[in-house]
């Protein structure tokens, strides 16, 4: 456990030798810190469970009174939102006077700097591990101390100035409405309404310009020459159909690559291949987890295309619509429609039912599976008769 200053520089570290986030380590670090401070110094401690530690210190005489009176507790900014609303009002650093923009997450940034020691010290002895962490923490402390001027300049430029400008802008906007005379408030509301209408008009103009540019681009592509059968089909329908076709190819490529990674893990677990080892196994799992959100996003986008195409299609258009894909990757792996391309050619006659009806395709697969089962039974019966003969 580490105690750092608000500039993320580590000061003291405590060796956690018991399970759980016990309060004794935080109290020991703070008590040791006060031995180096003047008797009138006040300390603000930002801790994930600072509310619990503060309550414990109020109930029990753990620290001397002179130290407890000069100690202010708050919760680190990221962890404060997981506490109850009443706790956030008292301990949230953004609602606590005197803490400024301190977020209290410097310890997390320190762990990020120390994480490279995990594979190195995994097989080390305890004394060696503690010595190495101590040396690395000292190097981090010296580097951050030497770079403190740059840290303060960056904090002022990107943290304070930008937020201050936005807050001042909001304050000016609010104060105009709050302190304006009664006869001006109505006029101010009219001005703000006109400004909103002007923004709406500008957005409409921009949208119209985009549509015209898309139509010009569509005309330059000579879609009607490349696809003469689309002569009576609307522009929006053709555009969505071509975009769905390209997106389906992208989805299939991503999904098949992800399924190969799954097979690599499954085969190693099943004994068909050599064990992957912890490092390769973790890398494969991380790669799967990293690509899964993007794959689900494009699948949802493709499903929206399918829904829009279904709404735009006219009965006289003999074009087979693409079917939506399941967002569950386990179901997608067994979905036969994943390997089917999006049809961008109109049918000469009515499309066959197996192409448009999912139940028909499932029935065909079930019928084929039943035939295979019957064949398997005949093979077993023939084998039994030959054995008896």
Question: In brief, what are we looking at here?
Answer:
This protein is mainly alpha-helical and 389 residues long.
Q: Can you characterise this structure?
A:
With 389 residues, the protein is mainly α. It folds into 3 domains: 145 residues, no CATH class; 124 residues; 33 residues. It has 16 helices and 4 strands. The strands form 2 sheets. Strands 1-2 form a two-stranded antiparallel ribbon. A hairpin with a 5-residue loop joins strand 1 and strand 2. It is extended. InterPro entries: KDZ (IPR040521).
Write the layout of secondary structure elements.
Blueprint: E1 2-4, E2 10-13, H1 23-34, E3 43-46, H2 50-59, H3 65-68, E4 71-74, H4 77-80, H5 85-91, H6 106-114, H7 117-121, H8 126-146, H9 148-179, H10 182-220, H11 223-226, H12 235-270, H13 278-312, H14 329-333, H15 353-356, H16 358-388
Parallel strand pairs: 3-4
Antiparallel strand pairs: 1-2
Helix pairs in contact: 12-13
């Amino acid at each position: 456990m580490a105690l750092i200053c608000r500039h993320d520089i580590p000061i003291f570290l405590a060796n956690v030798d018991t399970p759980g986030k016990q309060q004794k380590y935080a109290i020991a670090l703070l008590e040791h810190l006060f031995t180096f401070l003047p008797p009138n110094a006040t300390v603000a401690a930002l801790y994930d469970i600072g509310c619990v530690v503060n309550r414990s210190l109020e109930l029990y005489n753990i620290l001397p009174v002179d130290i407890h009176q000069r100690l202010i507790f708050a919760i680190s900014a990221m962890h404060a939102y997981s506490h109850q609303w009443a706790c956030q009002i008292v301990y949230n650093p953004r609602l606590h006077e005197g803490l400024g923009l301190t977020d209290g997450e410097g310890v997390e940034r320190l762990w990020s700097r120390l994480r490279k020691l995990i594979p190195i010290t995994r097989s080390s002895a305890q004394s060696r591990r503690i010595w190495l962490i101590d040396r690395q923490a000292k190097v981090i402390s010296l580097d951050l101390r030497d770079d403190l001027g740059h840290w303060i300049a960056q904090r002022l430029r990107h943290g304070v100035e930008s937020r201050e400008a936005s807050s001042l802008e909001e304050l000016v906007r609010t104060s105009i409405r709050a302190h304006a005379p009664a006869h001006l408030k109505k006029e101010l509301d009219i001005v703000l309404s006109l400004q909103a209408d002007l923004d709406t008009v500008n957005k409409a103009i921009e949208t119209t310009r985009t549509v015209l540019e898309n139509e010009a681009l569509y005309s330059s592509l000579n879609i009607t020459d490349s696809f003469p059968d689309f002569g009576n089909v609307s522009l929006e329908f053709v555009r969505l159909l071509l975009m769905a076709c390209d997106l389906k190819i992208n989805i299939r490529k991503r999904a098949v690559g992800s399924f190969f990674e799954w097979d690599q893990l499954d085969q190693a677990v099943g004994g068909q291949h050599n064990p992957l080892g912890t490092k390769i196994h973790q890398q494969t799992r991380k790669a799967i987890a990293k690509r899964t959100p993007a794959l689900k996003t494009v699948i949802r986008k493709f499903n929206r295309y399918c829904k829009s195409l279904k709404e735009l299609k006219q009965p006289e258009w003999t074009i087979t619509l693409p079917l939506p894909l399941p967002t569950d990757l386990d179901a997608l792996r067994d979905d036969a429609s994943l390997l089917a391309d999006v049809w961008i050619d109109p049918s000469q006659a009515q499309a066959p039912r197996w192409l448009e009806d999912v139940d028909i395709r499932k029935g065909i697969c079930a019928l084929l599976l039943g035939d295979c089962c019957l064949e398997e039974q005949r093979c077993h019966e023939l084998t039994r008769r030959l054995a008896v003969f």
